[in-house]
Protein 1
Amino acid sequence: MAEYQLYCFAQSGNCYRAALMLNLIGANWEPIWVDFFGEMVQRKPDYRENINEMGEAPVLVHGDKTLTQSGVILTYLANRSGKFKPQGEDEELEALRWIIFDNQKVNGFLGPFRFLRTLSKQKGDPAVLAFLKGRIDGNLAIVNKRLSSRKFLLGDRATIADISLAGYLYYPADEFGFDVAKEHPAVAAWCERIKALPGWKHPYELMPGHPLSAH
Ligand SMILES: N[C@@H](CCC(=O)N[C@@H](CS)C(=O)NCC(=O)O)C(=O)O
């Protein structure tokens, strides 16, 4: 059995953060597929009682430890491996600031937008999609400005804040109906820098469940 188990599925940018980090630090890990769209196991009492009371993926299991929330998982793995770790209190707080902004306002909107537009059986109301797209554009512009003068979110070195931001940014443009790279060039250049890190893989290569069967 591998040292780490990650409950995840290929379509999830939230899970991708954890899977990417595990790969980038060279961890010995294995995925456990969450049938999110078919059986919807994350909604079942057994999952909530035994795996994650919040009913979400990703979940990282390491020995007798079970961790949820990608930001917590990234922090744990950075502390254990010493890699992508913010250095000192100021950097730690700065990384947390960007992780929270990303969770709520960047990938936190990109995920539901793509889900409602492309993956959900019942497509999203156009007004809801328009609201989310407006927020996505505004928040990606904030990130784009930040990355215009820095290689990575905190400076010259990639940290867990960058790995969090990677969430949904490598999924195909046609799943969103717009091209983040074309509209936000500094984000596109940053994507290439992250992609060049040893161990980088596309979410559809790294996690099980792609392509999605009819659900
Ligand atoms: N902030 C959480 C978000 C996790 C999350 O929302 N995961 C989705 C999958 S992409 C989920 O499990 N949703 C539960 C559901 O919709 O039933 C994290 O970063 O881990």
Protein 2
Amino acid sequence: MTVSLWQDRSSEVTHRTDFVVIGAGISGASAAYWLASRGEKVALVDAGPVAAGASGKSAGMLLLGTADPYSRVVDLYGRDRARDVWSFTAECRALLTEHVFGAGENDADLRLVRTGTVSAAVSEHELSEIRRSGELLVADGFAHEDLDAATLKAAFHGDAFLGGLRDPAGMTVDPARLTRRVVGLAKDRGAEVFENHELFRIEEHEDGVVALTSRGRFEAEMILLCTNAYSPLVHPHLEGKVYPARGQMLATEPLPERVIPWGIYCDFGYEYFWQLDSGEVVAGGWRQHSADAEKGYSDETTPGIQEGVWEFMQRAVPALQGKRVTHRWAGVMGFSGDGLPFIGDLPSKPRVKYLAGHTGHGFGFGFLAAKKLVDLALEGDPIGWLGAGRLTLQGA
Ligand SMILES: Cc1cc2nc3c(=O)[nH]c(=O)nc-3n(C[C@H](O)[C@H](O)[C@H](O)COP(=O)(O)OP(=O)(O)OC[C@H]3O[C@@H](n4cnc5c(N)ncnc54)[C@H](O)[C@@H]3O)c2cc1C
């Protein structure tokens, strides 16, 4: 979207605040939460409603690590980096549990399922990576449990899976409700939320920054861009650093019995599904079968991908055959060159910082990555591998 001269109502109202966070997905909601928790005055601003972007379209699996299995990340980036990244996501999940979920009191409200998540293999090649990952993960202190083909066959009454690796602490959640909950917690701590305010220009002055949006002008000490996939549309500096990639999903009518005991992530993360306590099954993926068409900002569904997901699901979980699909949707993820999120400043604008590039794992990374962004903004704390300079060094 763009803002025309006619739509520009930024001159009608001026808001003065310490921080403006652009983007009310899980990243921006979390940044607003951490800022407000530290007593900062913060305005959380989005072009649409809260969770308008990927955070409202996600599968909501709270997984450890990246889309690539641990074994591959060890091969590509070394054992230390792999351990750091997995520890980061484990800490992120622990922080969400401590600050947002509580000891189970919000589970029903958030549609949270805590039975664990399983990386399941659909090929011998994937099985060998999963087994190797399992050994490395356990050696590095991340509790995981091997599941054999017979266990998966007994669970699903089908032959799709050759084996798996269960993360007992893995969870699945309604991602829109989770995002709205984090926004609610930020508001309880004093954050103000401005929906339907599209940012169209950033100005930097000697004593501060100004975010011009379609419905108001925000004067602040600092702007934090949490626009993930949309970041290149907000500022050209983010072009080539984060790439928009569509993910498609569907949901079924509620089933009377549980047919999926865990959140499942399979085919190297290209397919994923889980079942709500209320019976509905949500599933997504298949983008690898038309990777080029799935690039870009469109969030329309396409028949080929939707049929692919549904056929796969009926094979993997035969109890779904004959069931009705009630919802189909798509969302836009922000991929980085190496599968990890990154944080940086706009060139010569240290008052404008960004967090982007969650690469399909924003619920695994977002809450803690936003805290790191806030720690950097407030204290100048080091951000280690999260630094955007990493992408230039790797040529990613
Ligand atoms: C189908 C699908 C399945 C997924 N499954 C999982 C999963 O199981 N687990 C997982 O961890 N992750 C998953 N993801 C990825 C996850 O949803 C994202 O990584 C995460 O939501 C990113 O959050 P974010 O807040 O950074 O970005 P977003 O949620 O995309 O938020 C960005 C916000 O910026 C706003 N914005 C953009 N431009 C402007 C502007 N100019 N002015 C004001 N506001 C603006 C947008 O409206 C949007 O609300 C999935 C994504 C999709 C699409």
